[in-house]
């Protein structure tokens, strides 16, 4: 089933833009009567049928709307350092959207080497992962913020910092998190958070956690955190 | 700390081959007295010190051996279809080694489009993920086998098949798996297993499971399965 991302959808008809109309009618050879789905990123799944297979303005009649489609019983925000290798960061974004995440904030830490994120590219990855995994709620990508600003901001729910420093007590994530809760989890860069950063986060109310005993790369730790919260909510 | 993969290590000295010696002495500028670690893929971690920083035959004196280094209390074998996009399969291999896996078998299913795997390239990925995450036990990559051959082979422990077919009862992985057990988990290709394959697997003693409610790509499902078993064993 073809899925379109339609953030501005409203009413009982949706008209694809010129480029999507051409793709739909010329490349996919879709005809009037074909069923398609649309998601708006705000929790709605629209079931529709092509009414006019026009290659410049393909019209879709909306037959049914499902609100709060597969709404998760929890919310998750991951603050993660941008990574030297862009592929690895992109991979984290794609996989966490597939599994389920509400918000991603790139957090600039003292060991962060690359301090930028290509927002447009990341948002395209978010859109395609949403379509791929049929997520009606869009993951929000926030602009990069400094570590100190991130830890001193107001966050709802549990605040957690996952790190590898054996000198600071770390509680397994599964022991501190209760299903259904909102959580914010901090994941550090290659080379981890500095010890000062970890201490400051703890002073700001973040709980020091570990994701297990394996030494994980940053992007793998991000996915492990996201999947752990998902798993605990099953 | 520099880590070397040394499958043939023995005795109380280890000599790096010419290319590694050059890298170690010329590129990394390591000198006599520098501490290094070696893993042999059989569960041993060797702590050593460079005794002669020769750029053709760098000698390392072994000071200590740790047997069964971070041995997992369970074992995991994932049978997964090769994927059209090689990057995605490689990514599964890298991440599952980081998290922890004993055996990977590429399984050729009726919906498998690409039926081969580049064994040498995958083994290089396994080696570098082992070094990265300091795994003393090597993940075994088996040659590709057909689905029917895989399900009829003898497997120790629990046999599980993860699929997306809503028409067949699927139990959440967390409800069937008990920590400490050996497990074999089957993950299908893009387009999933055929219904016949799922039925045949069930007849052969595989339990039908689901990894949650998210629609995951094959490689993400592989990682989710690997991480679920890891998480349940924490």
Describe what this molecule looks like in 3D.
The structure is a homodimer of 234-residue chains. Chain A is an alpha/beta fold. Chain A folds into 2 domains: 65 residues, Hypothetical PUA domain-like, domain 1 (Ribosomal Protein L25, Chain P); 158 residues, Alpha/beta knot, CATH 3.40.1280.10. Chain A is 31% helix and 26% strand. Chain A is built from 7 helices and 13 strands. In chain A, strands 6, 7, 8, 9, 10, 11, 12 and 13 form an 8-stranded parallel sheet that branches. In chain A, helix 2 packs parallel to helix 3 and helix 2 runs parallel beside helix 7. The first copy, chain A, is elongated, with a radius of gyration of 20 Å. At the A-B interface, helix 2 and helix 7 of A face helix 2 and helix 7 of B.
Give me a quick take on this structure.
2 copies of one chain form a homodimer. Chain A is an alpha/beta fold and 234 residues long.
Secondary structure topology:
2 copies of one chain form a homodimer.
Chain A: E1 2-5, E2 13-15, H1 18-27, E3 35-39, E4 45-52, E5 59-66, E6 75-80, H2 86-99, E7 103-108, H3 119-132, E8 140-141, E9 145-146, H4 147-152, E10 158-162, E11 171-172, H5 173-176, E12 182-187, H6 195-203, E13 207-210, H7 218-232
Helix pairs in contact in A: 2-3, 2-7
């Amino acid at each position: 089933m073809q899925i379109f991302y339609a953030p501005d959808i409203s009413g009982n008809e949706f008209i694809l833009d010129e480029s999507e109309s051409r793709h739909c009618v010329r490349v996919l050879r879709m005809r009037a009567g074909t069923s398609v789905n649309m998601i708006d990123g705000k929790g709605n799944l629209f079931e529709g049928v092509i009414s006019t297979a026009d290659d410049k303005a393909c019209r879709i009649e909306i037959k049914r709307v499902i609100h709060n489609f597969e709404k998760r019983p929890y919310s998750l925000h991951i603050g993660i350092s941008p990574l030297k290798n862009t592929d690895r960061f992109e991979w984290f974004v794609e996989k966490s959207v597939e599994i389920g995440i509400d918000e991603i904030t790139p957090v600039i830490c003292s060991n962060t080497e690359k301090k930028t994120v290509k927002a447009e590219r990341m948002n395209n990855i978010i859109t395609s992962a949403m379509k791929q995994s049929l997520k009606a709620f869009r993951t929000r990508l926030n602009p990069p913020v400094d570590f100190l600003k991130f830890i001193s901001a107001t966050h709802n729910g549990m605040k957690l910092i996952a790190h590898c420093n054996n000198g600071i007590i770390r509680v397994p994530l599964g022991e501190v998190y209760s299903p259904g809760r909102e959580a914010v989890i901090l994941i550090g860069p290659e080379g981890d958070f500095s010890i000062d950063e970890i201490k400051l986060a703890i002073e700001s109310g973040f709980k020091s956690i570990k994701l297990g005993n394996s030494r994980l790369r940053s992007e793998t730790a991000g996915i492990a955190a996201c999947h752990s919260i998902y798993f605990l909510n099953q």
